What does this fold into?
Amino acid sequence: MVSKLDDYLRFNEAALGLRSQRQQVLASNIANADTPNYKARDIDFASALKGAMSNTPAPGSLATTSPQHQQAVASGNALADGTPVLYRQNAQGSADNNTVDMDVERNQFADNAVRYEAGITMLNHQIRNLMAAIQGGQ
Amino acid sequence: MSLFNIFNVAGSGMSAQAQRLNATASNLANADSVTDASGKAYRAKQVVFESVPIDGGSTAVKVAQVVEDPSPLKQQYDPKNPMADEKGYVSMPNVNVVDEMVNMLSASRSYQNNVETMNAAKTMLLKTLTIGQ
It folds into this structure.
């Protein structure tokens, strides 16, 4: 029963987790818009979500078969769950080798924030449906 | 909770841009300062940004150093000035006012971007608190 509840909510939970991670990467790009040689980064959301839902570890993550094995931690090139953080292709170069395009970053940031809130609304509806089923329409 | 990291990242961006704005304000205020405590003309100061990886795969920004502009001081012919050399030239600060104005606008806009990043993260966090209500 509990695993059914878990399965029911898992998709939106995974999506929200990835959305918040992506928001963090985009915030880093905006903060470093004036840092020389900084390269704008992003994650491939669709493939990261697919990896999270299919229970297969993302490429590059560590398999732990013993409790004494080290847990993977977030590094410069991957999130804590092993999702690779990629570099953005820039449309036009700049004198200081910085590849942050503020229009793209602001656009993606707003888009990601709205989708995050949509995910929360969806999760709320799922919980409301569960409550309706539990209470039997009373 | 990774959304809280956005406060750290945007906060580091805000303080770095504020330092840059501070340097610009110093340069503009001292654009005509012929002498300082050591008797030399003022030299323009510029901040150098550096990205700093922090926990959770995000990258903050900090001011690595403040450098003085090494370009030559402007020479102005003004023999009546007490600071003039034997040929009558006064060394004026190497502040480029146009550059500083551009820097000021750029720092101000970047600061605003970071403020909005922080506000968006706050809205998302508050929305998250409504799950299950």
In short: Chain A has three helices and two strands.
